[in-house]
Every structure is written in C-alpha cells, then in structure tokens.
Specification:
CATH superfamily of the largest domain: Histidine kinase-like ATPase, C-terminal domain
Protein name: histidine kinase
Main location: membrane
Number of domains: 3
Strand content: 5-15%
CATH architecture of the largest domain: 2-Layer Sandwich
EC number: 2.7.13.3
Number of strands: 13
Number of helices: 12
CATH topology of the largest domain: Heat Shock Protein 90
Organism: Streptomyces hainanensis
Shape: rod-shaped
Structural class: alpha+beta
Radius of gyration: 51 Å
CATH class of the largest domain: Alpha Beta
Catalytic activity: ATP + protein L-histidine = ADP + protein N-phospho-L-histidine
Length: 573
C-alpha cells in the first residue's frame, strides 16, 4: 500500500512517516559528479571508429534524452491530473451520499438500517462498494457490505482503520470525522479506499472504487509517448545521417584529394562550393597543394640540373683524367730513379690522381643509376668463391673472417656483387677494425616461383654507428659532422652498394649489434635476371628502354677493382 498526496474534497491521505534513522546514500558533489559523467561519455564517444557514427550517436542521445524528459514530464503531469480528478470525484460523491443518507439513519440503527444505508450509498453515479461498521454498542459489531463478494472490512488497511477511529481536537459530536483515503493495489489492480465516521458518534463507513480505467488510460498514454519517443529517435537518426552526409561529404572529398596528393598527383585541386568553413578549408587545401606543387617542381628542376651538372662534369673530367692517370703511372714506374726530394711529391700526385679517378668513376656510376641506364649481366656463381675472390683481390685475407659454406649458388651480376662486398667490408675495416666477420646464409621462401635468398652479414668490432647517423648511412655525401677531417673516400661507396643491391632486387640494412660494433646485412634473391633475359621490371628495364642493347659492357662502366674501391664508408661515420 502507498499513500497519495492530499487533494480537494476534504480528504486527508494516510502518509507513512520516514524512519529518521534509516541509512542514506551519499550524493557526490554536483560539479565533480557532472564533470566525471561528461568526461566518461566523451571517452566512450571517442572510441567510436567513425565520425559519422559519433555524430549520429550524439544526435540520437540528445533526441532520446529530450524525448524521454518531455514524455516523462507529460506522463507524470497527466497521471497526477487523471488520478486526482478520479479520486476527488469519488471522494466528493462518497461524502455527498453519506450526508444525504445519514439524516434518515435512526439514532439506534440496526444492522438492517445500516444495510439499507450501504445499498443507498453504493447506488450512485460512481461505481464503488461500501462497508458500514457499527461498533458503538457493547454487543457484537454490526458489519454490512453493499457487495460482500467485492468489498469487506478485511480488505481495508489496518493503518487506515486506525486513522478513521482517531479523534482529533477539532472533532465535534455533530460533525463527521475527517475523510481519510489511501491507494492500494490488489492482485495487480489499483483501488482507492476511503473511510470516515458518518457522524461524530455514528458508525464508520468505508468505500472501495477501482482505478483500473484510469490505469488503462495511463498505460495507453505511456504506450503513445513511448512510440512518439521511438519515432523521435528514428527521426533524429535520419536527420543526423543527413547532417553528417552534408558535413562529411566535403571532408571525404578532402580526404580523397589528400590521398591523391600523397600519391604524387600534385595537380590535384578541389572545386570550392559555398562560403562556409568547409569552403574555406577547401580553398586552403588548394593553396597548399599549389604551393607544394611549385616547391616540388622547383626542387625537381634543381635536382635535374644538379644531375646534369654531375654527369657533364664526370664526362668532361674523364678524358683529361685518362691522360693524367697514364702519366702518373709512368712517373710511378720511375719513382726509384728520381731525386729523393722529388719522390714523395710524385707519390702524392699518384695517390691523389688515383683518388680523383675513383671519384670520377663513382660519379659516373651514380649518373647511370639516376638515368636508369645501369645494366645487369648476371651469371650463376658460387657465393663462397665470390666472397673469397673479393677479399683476396684486396689483400684482406688476414683481416677478414669468412663463414661462407660452399655450394650456395645464386644468379647475380658478379661485378656488381664485388662492388657491394668491397664497400661493405672496406667500410668495416676502416671504422670497425679487424677482424671483420663475413657470414653467408641461405633463406628459404614459401613462394613456389622463388628460389629463396642469400643473406650476407658484415660485422665489425668497432664502436658502432651513432643512432642519429644510422638512418643516413646510405645517403650520398652524408657527413656525420661538418668538422670531420678529410678522408680518402668520396662518400658514395655505400650509396652505390645500395643501388647495386636494388638492381638485384635486394636490400641492405645497417644496425648496431648488442655486443658492440656495426652490422650491415645484404639480402639478395638467388634468381636475379639479366637485361639479356628480357626482365621488364626495375632499373634494368629502364636501361633497355633507353636504347641500351644487350652485349659487352659499355666502355664507360668502370672496372670492378676501380669502382669497388673499398673504404667509401668513412663518409658516414
């Protein structure tokens, strides 16, 4: 049972007083509580993967909150009005019926008199049942019901009976007691029960009326409000979809344009539509793309000019260098017959001439890579023999440890592999110190059309490569320090080694070993193809497209011993 609030009609509700000692749940501080809730919802929204989904979710939540709030307020206001109207009408009719019939009740009324009064009170415009109880005499209590099957005194709450019998200070014998009422629920159906004394010293009367019609009306209202709320949420989702499409379509256009720009299509532009913030963003993107295109074009022009200059300079220097080299070789042969004061100068000229000749040859090799005219002439070789030959040709046998099992065959360009190994080993000897260890292993692959890979590891015992230098070890002419003293290398050796590895379809990487020292790893496929075999991919194909025909090496290509001058790597440490 639960009490209802007092309304018009003179009735007083029976209200249960709350226990002042009951446990209460604490309420967190308002601002901190709201801030915590909002931040929690914000974190959950940010976890959603799509901006469209976040927008739709926000719209749906706002619409749901607004619809639920409005529906809840409307339901409770309507419920209060409906119940109050039905309750006041029943109480007013009950009081009026009691007043009309109480005058005809004898002073010493019998049970038959009370039964007639109960039937008269119940026979009214509002359908309710009545129980009259006369407990004033010392004899047995007289209890009569208008419908014994529908309403008995046992159905009246005990607290309501006690309240009806309680005499107040303002009660008089000639006036009725106060009318008390209470809403109860029996078997899931709501009822209103009211009770009062007919007169100050008269019998007590109780009334029972059903609130089921009002409950049905309220259930129908709740269903209607729930349907309206669902329709509002669906409408908000559709509206959010439309709004998200309107907002995100330009964003998607910008995303696609940025992707095309990242792929190198620098002429990408977008049509500016409207004058809102998205239109301003589109204009900003177009301006940035235009500026980027100008800068990239300017850099490309400068790079092309630099490459032409290097190529022209290399070719122009080669002819006089050939003559100078021939003359220095003659002087080197006669150095023992020269004056001891002149011999050191002659030896210096010879060494510097060779260094300059190596630089010219390396520059010409770089121009071939840039022009994509470098060619591959592959052959089946034993990798162990190739490594041993490279080390033996440069008299490094005492300084290099080789772990290369025989029988590992690969189809490579022997000259270019020699260039790669010479630069890697020479770099390790100059900066890591001996002994340098060269390890060769095989690596299988799951692809049926691949023969696997050959992996070379060149490890030294030096201090390793600084972490800030490591990403640049294969850059051309890179200097770890601007104050680095002049060295014998050109700064192109590792770059040429990397380009030769790419021609084979391989890769070179550099790292520092945990126990100290630098480790260069060369990974080459065992089935590289020659230009003569019609390879249509990579730089080799570009060389064929440039008009280079298969056959003997070009006279411009440097000999292996010259192009593979070990020790170019000092430029990167």
């Amino acid at each position: 049972m639960r009490a209802a609030a007092p309304r018009q009609g003179g009735g007083r509700p029976l209200v249960a007083q709350a226990d002042p000692h009951r446990a209460r749940r604490g309420i967190p501080a308002g601002r901190a509580f709201v801030r915590e809730r909002v931040s929690g919802w914000t974190r959950r929204l940010r976890r959603l993967p799509s901006l469209r989904l976040r927008l739709v979710t926000v719209f749906a939540l706002v619409a749901l909150g607004a619809a639920v709030s409005v529906s809840g307020i409307a339901y409770w206001l309507t419920r209060d009005a409906v119940l109050t109207r039905a309750q006041n009408a029943a109480l007013k009719d009950f009081r009026k019926s009691l007043s009309d019939t109480a005058g005809a009740l004898p002073e010493n009324a019998t049970c038959d008199d009370l039964r007639g009064m109960a039937a008269a009170v119940a026979n009214n415009t509002i359908s309710y049942q009545v129980v009259l109880v006369d407990d004033r005499s010392a004899g047995p209590i007289c209890e009569v019901e208008s419908d014994p099957l529908a309403f008995k005194l046992t159905m009246v709450p005990r607290a309501l009976i006690e309240a009806v019998h309680e005499r107040r200070d303002d009660d008089t014998p000639d006036a009725p007691y106060h009318l008390y009422w209470q809403r109860v629920s029996r078997d899931g159906d709501p009822f209103l029960i009211a009770g009062t004394r007919v007169l100050g010293d008269g019998p007590t009367a109780y009334m029972l009326t059903s609130l089921a019609p009002e409950r049905d009306d309220l259930d129908s209202l709740a269903w209607s409000l729930g349907t309206a709320t669902a329709l509002a949420v669906v409408g908000s989702v559709l509206l959010a979809q439309a709004a998200a499409t309107t907002v995100l379509r330009p964003v998607q256009r910008l995303s696609d344009a940025a992707q095309r720009l990242g792929e190198g299509r620098l002429d990408t532009r977008l049509e500016v539509r409207g004058a809102d913030e998205l239109a301003h963003l589109t204009r900003t993107f177009n301006s940035a793309a235009e500026s980027l295109e100008r800068q990239v074009q300017d850099l490309s022009n400068r790079e092309a000019a630099s490459r032409r200059f290097v190529a022209d300079m290399s070719h122009e220097l080669r002819t006089p260098m050939t003559a100078i080299t021939a003359m220095t070789e003659v002087l080197e042969e006669e150095v023992d017959n020269l004056d001891p004061m002149i011999a050191p100068a002659v030896q210096l000229v010879v060494s510097e001439t060779r260094r300059l000749n190596d630089l010219v040859e390396n520059l010409m090799e770089v121009t071939r890579f840039d022009a994509r005219t470098a060619r591959m002439v592959v052959d089946d070789v034993d990798i162990a023999d190739q490594v041993t030959a490279c080390i033996d040709a440069r008299a490094w046998l005492d300084a290099v440890e080789v772990a290369a099992p025989r029988g590992i065959m690969a189809r490579v360009d022997p000259r270019r592999l020699d260039v790669i190994l010479a630069n890697l080993i020479g770099n390790a000897l100059k900066h890591g110190g001996s002994p340098v260890r060269v390890t060769v292993t095989e690596e299988s692959t799951d692809e049926p059309d691949q023969r696997g890979y050959v992996v070379f590891e060149v490890a030294d015992r030096g201090p390793g490569i600084p972490e800030d230098v490591l990403p640049h070890v294969f850059d051309r002419f890179y200097k770890a320090s601007a104050s680095r003293p002049r060295s014998d290398g050109s700064g192109l050796g590792l770059s040429i080694a990397l380009e030769n590895a790419h021609l084979h379809g391989g890769e070179i990487s550099a790292r520092n070993a945990a126990e100290g020292g630098a480790v260069f790893t060369l990974r080459l496929p065992r089935g590289a193809r020659s230009d003569d075999e019609g390879d249509a991919e990579g730089p080799a194909a570009d060389g064929a497209a440039a008009g280079r025909t298969p056959g003997p090496r070009s006279a411009e290509e440097p000999p292996a011993a010259t192009a593979a001058s070990g020790g170019e790597g000092e430029e990167i440490r």
